[in-house]
Amino acid sequence: MTGGILYVVATPIGNLEDISARALRILKEVDLIAAEDTRHSLKLMSHFGISKPLVSYWSEKEKSKAEEIIARLISGSDVALISDAGTPGISDPGSVLIRRAIEENIRIIPIPGPSALIAALSVSGLDTDGFTFAGFLPPKSGQRRKRLSDLAHTAETLIFYEAPHRIIESLEDIRDCLGDRRAAVAKEISKMYEDVQRGKLSEIIISLQNSTIAGEYVVMVEGYQKQASSIDEALAEVQALLKKGLGRKEAVKVVAESYQISKKELYDKSLGS
């Protein structure tokens, strides 16, 4: 490893009290803070009495600014990378600098903290054992529908970010392409007007159409559920997995979850198949 350390620091997505004690210590100790928007980050710094040099790396300047920051790191300076809210590089600027630091063999240390997608998922009521985060959907409906079609058979919970001016049309495209699935839509997580809507996509669309649209949204949609036409179809899949070497309990568990049927019933019937 060469030079200084790049700290990837998660900052509050709303309530400033969400910042960790470790994040505050790092921000006070580093030589330089690389911020998505220095004007926005100054509010955070001022609130906690932190006075450090700030350099902006907002999207249009991210590549050129990354080289300046890398030079500082190589010279031995420790740098904290922050975005306007949440974890840098996760649907936020920062990934360019992180990749360049890896190329230059610079030590990188993550300072965990707030993440809108994780906070929203935790209160969604949807499956949290596995999920697919797809970031922001394309702004144009045609491209958006193509992307949704590619994700239509994903069994895990799907998570998207969406801007307020596109939230209704995006939800309508999601409903049309994926079906009227169970979903949850969160806005303004950790802020004053935090809200989570849960239900079928069609129900959430109607609710949002009759409410104030504002703030950034996290959209979470139930994963694809295969519908069994009969128990025989499910049993056939169990047998196929058994032939591949999977144990009976594990095979039954996988198929039962996919078909949304009783594991006990499927297991009992598989013994006689």
Q: Mind telling me the C-alpha Rg? A: 23 Å
State the order of secondary-structure elements, H for helix, E for strand: EHEHEHEHEHEHEHEEHEHHH
Q: Average pLDDT, to the nearest integer? A: 92
CATH superfamily of the largest domain: Tetrapyrrole methylase, N-terminal domain
Which secondary-structure class do the elements indicate? alpha/beta
Number of helices: 11
Number of domains: 3
Quickly describe the structure.
This protein has 273 residues and is an alpha/beta fold.
Please explain how this structure is put together.
The chain has helices at residues 21-29, 38-47, 62-74, 95-103, 116-122, 141-151, 167-178, 201-209, 231-243, 248-259, 263-271, and strands spanning 5-9, 32-35, 54-56, 79-82, 107-111, 131-136, 157-162, 182-187, 195-200, 217-221. Helices cover 42% and strands 18% of the residues. It has 3 domains: 5-114, Cobalt-precorrin-4 Transmethylase, domain 1; 117-221, Methyltransferase, Cobalt-precorrin-4 Transmethylase, Domain 2, CATH 3.30.950; 231-271, no CATH class. The mean pLDDT is 92. The protein is built from 11 helices and 10 strands. The protein has 273 residues and is an alpha/beta fold. The strands form 2 sheets. It has a 5-stranded parallel β-sheet, with helices on both faces. Strands 6-7-10-8-9 form a 5-stranded mixed β-sheet, sandwiched between helices.
